[in-house]
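Researcher: Here's a chain I'd like modeled. Treat it as a single chain, no partners, no ligands.
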Amino acid sequence: MAVSTNFRRAFAGKRVLVTGGLGFIGSNLTRRLVDLGARLTIVDALIPEYGGNRRNLAGVASRVRVVRADVRDWARMARLVRGQDFLFNLAGQTSHMDSMTDPQTDLDINCRAQLAILEACRVHNPAIRIVFASTRQIYGKPDYLPVDEKHPLRPVDVNGINKLAGEEFHLLYSKVHGIRATALRLTNTIGPRMRVKDARQTFVGVWVRRLVEGQPFEVWGGGQLRDFTYVDDAVEAFLLAACRDEAVGEIFNLGGPPPVTLQRLAEVLVSINGGGDFVVREFPGDRKKIDIGDYYADDRLIGRKLGWKPRTDLRVMLKRTLEYYRRELKFYV
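Model: Modeled as a single isolated chain. Structure tokens:
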């Protein structure tokens, strides 16, 4: 209860800009900030491949200013950052495969646009507080598990390289220009409002859609270990990072409950669904080249510094996600 009260004190009446605010994590964060009394402006390009969906703000859209704009529109972003107290910077190209087949677009969104946003903040609003959505993908294939923030950074795809550059820009501007920024390295985040049309955001979305439709789904590999963060827990981490001075200039991993193999994850999902089928297959050749193998995060640093910990166990997050898409699937396919 005390944490919630602190969040209200931190965000009530404050001007908050969320890039990617119609997407999965951005919309869940936006909904929470609306409840906390923030004055929200969200930016989303609504590019079909990137997950933005107006349905994600059902019930709260009238309390939010929605600007359809692209973070690559540097002049417009410069105008939008003015006067904001907080920036939650979640806009991005998330597909690893798309980054390999269209690397220039990934570079423009995940790298060049991030630098432009930070320059706009430096020139027009240097007092703004920023939390940047980074990714576990920047670690590449782990040397050891669990992966902590000191692990070497060796991305295995273009997306990881560009996200690393975007993260480094945020940390550089924090150190050199005093732009108070924090980076959160997200693992597999799942929950209501995630993209289920395809695997551009998360393979779990495809599994959920297929189950709800009564169709079998494919598990590639099956033996890889992964950890998963429920979206509400991720939202709490973003809020904590934004309102705690200890987070300025820092990088934090997010994790989740104990890791599971992908095959076990599929078994649990089918069990919760009350039935369903899946097939374990070899990784397709193009994807195997950029697969990182086993991964799960050491998230003790954010626990020590900010008091964050994942609160939602795997069965609960899968149950809530399935329930949401049983009601809402028609808006997401």
